[in-house]
Design a protein that fits this description.
mainly alpha; two-stranded antiparallel ribbon; 4 strands
């Protein structure tokens, strides 16, 4: 017996706005502790190495849970899993709000990181529920929330830290998480589309193990030593587990990740481009605030306060809001391949601007904003390219994998930036600081990543999107490519 499809809300715009708001909130969680990191040892009695785990652990749990929860949503209900993810964020926020113990804080941050799965789940819901003419613009906005939240999180956190007790930002994030849950339950319908089969628990564990080993090696390699036994051992384990996992997945009738679909040029190259775009974008977030805070004794630093340095990224966040609909219009008219190629070019231009304008606050902000605008167009185009190449029943898992690739790109970027800034230093005003050439090298590396993304994008098959694969009409697709909710599901 087939259950009746959940009716879409009378005002689908509310659903788009609610899901986008949820995306911004979970993305803010990824960067909200960055301004606090230098103060964590004094506030908690933890070592600087332990404090760094407040960022590392969110990267790990986000990478692990994003594709897993995307698959779970495809099988058991996207809104159901999305609400659960927001509930995990609330629990993590409360843990951080009530304690100053580093172990509790790391646990809470791990739970907050797992909630990043909200973004691919939201994309899948929008694809299922909206009429065809609204899918591209809504998905573009939802995807861009990853960058919008990252840009907004730093200045918001800086203001809170300088004016209130630092636990306040976790109480606020927990309260907003509860508000998100209420809004989702009232405004977002559950999709009737489900994929067939059983959940691949072994595949999920194998993927998680490979990702944890890889990302631990990448994020901690700078502290442990890139040639240390621990780093090389984790990389070796990641490769072996990934190979075994891949062999297992190819034999499964309903795998955690459909590697045959993922190996299609349209999907594989899109995910490679996502990794490179994630790398290029993250450099902008990592170095902008730090660069303007460097003391004037360095010859290039502006000695800006924590709040001012955070506000330097705010225009970029606003640019991402403004340019996500632009990307949707380009994708509708010229295809998402054109949008992604244009975005990669804009990001590269933004870093060239940054290379030559490292002494002026306003020109630094301008260059950072150009990079953010390019990222908005890229992040908006990536889900359209993914949806073009995968069945409707795998939308959540496929977008989760694409989001994962962006996270891996960010992890490699973080390691690269840390290595460059730590190895190109000089004495300035009685302290060690990165040289101007170190920052400029970061800009060149990020521009190179953007140009590589451009080259990969140009190799993608096709031009215009296949409208049949991005339409939001759930009735036509439930007859052909997905299984409606069955009684007892």
């Amino acid at each position: 017996m087939t259950a009746p499809a959940t009716a879409a809300p009378d005002h689908p715009r509310f659903a788009v706005g609610v899901l986008a708001f949820c995306g911004v909130v979970v993305a803010v969680m990824q960067t909200i502790v960055v301004p606090l990191l230098p103060h964590i040892p004094a506030l908690t009695g933890a070592t600087p190495a332990a404090a760094s785990w407040l960022v590392t652990v969110t990267l790990l749990t986000g990478a692990v849970f994003t594709p897993v929860l995307g698959r779970v949503g495809d099988m058991y209900g996207k809104r159901r899993v999305l609400v659960g993810s927001l509930g995990v964020l609330v629990v993590g926020s409360v843990l951080c709000a009530v304690s100053s113990h580093i172990g509790v804080l790391i646990t809470g941050r791990a739970l907050q990181g797992a909630a990043i799965a909200v973004v691919p789940l939201g994309i899948s819901i929008l694809r299922d529920e909206l009429p065809p003419e609204r899918v591209l613009s809504a998905v573009a906005l939802m995807s861009s929330t990853l960058g919008i939240g990252a840009a907004v999180g730093l200045p918001v956190a800086a203001v809170v830290i300088e004016n209130f007790d630092w636990h306040t930002m976790f109480w606020v994030s927990g309260a907003i998480g509860v508000l998100d849950i209420v809004l989702v339950l009232r405004c977002v319908p559950e999709s009737p589309l489900r994929s067939r089969g059983r959940f691949d628990a072994i595949g999920a564990l194998g993927l998680s193990a490979a990702l944890v080993c890889l990302l631990l090696a990448v994020t901690q390699g700078g502290d442990w030593g890139w040639t240390s036994a621990r780093t090389l051992g984790l990389l070796a384990v990641a490769v072996v587990v990934a190979l075994l996992w891949g062999a297992y997945e190819l034999r499964m009738p309903t795998p955690m990740v459909d590697l045959r679909v993922s190996a299609r040029p349209a999907v594989l190259l899109t995910n490679v481009a996502a990794l490179l775009i994630g790398f290029a974008f993250y450099a902008n977030s990592l170095v902008t605030a730090q660069m303007v805070q460097e003391p004037k004794a360095t010859g290039y630093g502006l000695g800006a306060s924590l709040v001012v340095s955070g506000l330097c990224l705010l225009p970029g966040g606003l640019a991402m809001v403004a340019f996500s609909p632009v990307s949707a219009r380009i994708s509708a008219g010229r295809g998402p391949k054109t949008s992604l190629a244009l975005a990669a070019g804009i990001i590269a231009v933004g870093y060239v601007v940054r290379y030559f304008t490292s002494h002026s606050l306003w020109l630094i902000v301008a260059g950072a904003t150009v990079v953010s605008a390019g990222t908005a167009i890229a992040y908006s185009a990536l889900p359209a390219l993914v949806m073009r190449g995968v069945p409707v029943g795998e939308t959540g898992a496929a977008n989760g994998l694409n989001t994962l690739m962006r996270s891996i790109g960010q992890a490699f970027c973080s390691a690269t930036v840390a290595a460059v800034l730590a190895n190109m230093t000089f004495l300035a005003g009685g302290r060690t600081a990165p040289t101007l050439q170190a920052y400029q090298l970061v800009f060149l590396i990020a521009a190179g990543a953007a140009l590589l993304a451009l080259a990969v994008t140009l190799c993608l098959p096709g031009g215009r999107a296949d409208t049949g694969t991005v339409k939001g009409n759930r009735r036509s697709r439930s007859r052909t490519r997905a299984m409606p909710i069955q009684e007892g599901a």
